[in-house]
Specification:
Layout lengths: L1 H20 L4 E3 L4 E3 L2 E4 L5 E4 L4 E3 L13 E5 L5 E4 L4 E3 L2 E4 L2 E4 L4 E2 L4 E3 L24 E3 L4 E2 L4 E2 L4 E2 L4 E2 L4 E2 L7 E5 L2 E6 L9
Parallel strand pairs: 1-4, 2-5, 3-6, 4-7, 5-8, 6-9, 7-10, 8-11, 9-12, 10-13, 11-14, 12-15, 13-16, 14-17, 15-18, 17-19
Antiparallel strand pairs: 19-20
Length: 202
């Protein structure tokens, strides 16, 4: 009974939210699902594209982790783009683009991740009093197909994560990660590379 009420509530929220965000800047592929509170905020002349069969969710129902905030997609500058491929699942994470955040198909992004292409402010050590007025330099974030990002991970500006790789929970990814490996830590480093001759890697 409780589960049915929670699902009904999230369905109502989803309908209201969908009517608000459905505009020419947001493109949802066939059978794309937005479950629970999914906040979508777009800047003029920006775009968000979500591929067919993808699921973005904040709903705690039938999910194995606690979620600390709503699923959020934000473009904050004209021309900014968020692209999400087909059949990708993202839970209660924040994706913020001032230039480009591109996520491939069949990706798994666990709850409470932060993915952004700009740190928000410049270092401004030569004029620290003006730091608050700066916006930071945007550097595209590219996440390849079939990437799995563990809960609580932070993907920093300018990072590319190669296809098939796994980012361990709680990692801070500051540099590129090659394809088909496990990376983790703060800052993240490659822990294991896949070796097709022995299966699971070395």
């Amino acid at each position: 009974m409780v589960t049915q009420l929670v699902n009904k509530f999230f369905t109502i929220v989803n309908i209201v939210r969908f009517n608000i965000v459905k505009n020419k800047q947001v493109t949802l592929g066939n059978k794309t699902r937005l479950v629970g509170l999914v906040i979508i905020s777009t800047c003029r002349e920006s775009e968000i594209k979500i591929g067919a069969g993808s699921k973005l969710s904040t709903s705690p129902v039938n999910y194995h982790l606690s979620t600390f905030g709503a699923m959020k997609l934000v473009t904050s500058r004209p021309g900014a783009r968020i692209k999400i491929g087909s059949n990708t699942r993202i839970h209660a994470s924040c994706i913020h683009a001032r230039d480009l955040v591109e996520i491939g198909s069949r990706c798994l992004i666990a709850a409470n991740c932060q993915i952004f292409d700009s740190s928000g402010h410049d270092l401004s050590f030569d004029d620290i009093q003006n730091r608050i007025n700066t916006r930071g330099i945007a550097k595209p974030v590219i996440i390849g197909d079939d990437v799995w990002i563990g809960t609580g991970s932070i993907i920093m500006p300018g990072v590319t994560i190669g296809a098939g790789s796994v980012i361990a929970a709680g990692s801070v990814v500051t540099k590129d990660v090659p394809s088909m490996c496990i990376a983790g830590g703060n800052p993240a480093r490659v822990i294991r590379e896949y070796n097709k001759d022995i299966g699971e890697g070395i």
